[in-house]
Amino acid sequence: MQDAKGPDQLFQRALAEGEILLPKCDDCGAYHFFPRVLCPHCHGTAISWKQATGKGRVYTTTVVRRSHDRGGDYNVCMVELQEGVRMMSRVEGIAPGEVAIDMAVTAFVGEAEDAPAVLFKPSEV
Amino acid sequence: MTTELRGKSAIVGTGHAGFGEAHGLTAYDVMAQSALAALGDAGLKLSDVDGLFCTMMEDSMPALMAAEYLGIQPRFIDGTMSGGSSFVNYLTSATMALDAGLCDVALIVYGSNQRTASGRLVTASRPPAYEAPYNPRYPISAYAMAAARHMHEYGTTREQLADVAVAARAWAQHNPEAFERGPLTREDVLGARMVGDPLTVRDCCLVTDGGGAIVMVRADRARDFPKAPVYVLGSAAESSHRQISQMKDFTVTAARDSGARAFAAAGVTPADIQAVELYDAFTINTILFLEDLGFCAKGEGGAFVEGGRIAPGGVLPVNTNGGGLSCVHPGMYGIFTVIEAARQIRGDAPGIQLEDIDLALAHGNGGVLSSQVTAILGSQNTL
Question: How far apart are CA B324 and CA B304, in angstroms?
């Protein structure tokens, strides 16, 4: 990962170092997610990486029902970050059914499927 | 504005096979049986087919696999994979290929044995890299989140979602081909096992085996076949995303665009449509598509379907075979929207046959509300 070059590799390397970086287009100024070699809004190819504010809101949410033996129910949701991008994630620290649309959440780097991943927790009021 | 392709092609045969459980058969066996059934319906033979339009769940070269299995050497193939909408999309490419003389007999075909093979959705599709770590259940979590957002923005209720399933079952109860024909109430749907909030297992389509096929020819020879021809008056597609996280507004699908263009191509409006066949993978789909296709305003879909308004005897006949919720859902349902629309127009629907149907709509959905394809079909009277 030391010589990471592609957008996905750069995002994952930052995540492994505990940082959430978001791609931002130098031409139109808009953020996008997932990382890619061009801006999906204006199709420019000059992309910079910016530290995410981590501030977001739940756009929509569901509880994936799973038997207790297999680990129980869990949350899957869509979070809209202040930067204007949306990502799939889950909110931790509260029951999966307590995650609500419009809830203010804060990102942190946790683990999903044994790999570093962007997760969220309810924001401190 | 109508297009040059309006009425240039016609469906002259439909067929299906393996509905429910096709024990001991492979997906390609069911595909081939469906092809034979449709060709028999049209009075044609496999050797007449020179255009093949096919995709399957388990392969990346399904059109080649299907042609090889069928023992044909088509001069035109289309295996575009946009999920369950693919088969509605093939109406466009088949019409274009027929009109251009690139083929003379187009066979659109699909088959699946997912119920008896695995009991769950079979797919060669890879999980999206930026979603997979969160373990969404594919595809239900995506539709559950669309339903949750629709409920949040428009006050749509779980009861209204349930009424979609109840209406589908009411149609299915009259259809001997339907897989689920037992009674189903709103309370049954609400009280069923929750699988992805707010959707219970009864808000979800069936997991069945089954295949379907459609035979198409140019309009100039469409009246030379045993069954009344069903003309493709307009068909249009719009693709908005692949992964659910990339869908801009979870309450508005690209059916708004595909529908508007299909209606314009056919030169008709939603008020003219007598039978509506929608890809109802989940109860929220029916509500979204009724709104986006213009049968009601955005946000009013819940009220539109409430209390039997799309059930037999209601204000608009929707999914008259019982849909993917109660009739058949072998991984991809799209082809069955076209088959049921065509049969309603021909007058040989397997369940409730509506009276004097000249115009019907078939709408396919693919991926996770990703690909939307709308087709308007009409009888000889609509040319």
Answer: 20
Nearest to B196 among A59, A65, A102 (CB): A65
Could you please report the per-residue DSSP string of B50-100? -EEEE--SS-SSHHHHHHHHHT---SEEE---BTBTHHHHHHHHHHHHHHT
Give domain limits for chain A. 1-51, 53-125
What does pTM read for this prediction?
A: 0.97
Question: ipTM greater than 0.90, yes or no?
Answer: yes
Residue B68: other Cβ atoms inside 10 A = 12
- Kindly determine whether residue A112 and residue B134, on different chains, have CB atoms separated by under 8 Å: yes
User: Which CATH superfamily groups domain B9-119+209-229?
Assistant: Thiolase/Chalcone synthase (3.40.47.10)
Superfamily for the B137-193+234-382 domain = Thiolase/Chalcone synthase (3.40.47.10)
- pLDDT classification of A1: cutoffs 50, 70, 90: very low
pLDDT digits (tens, 9 = 90+) for B82-117: 999 999 999 999 999 999 999 999 999 999 999 999
Min Cα–Cα distance to chain B from A26, Å: 21
CATH code for A53-125?
Answer: 2.40.50.840
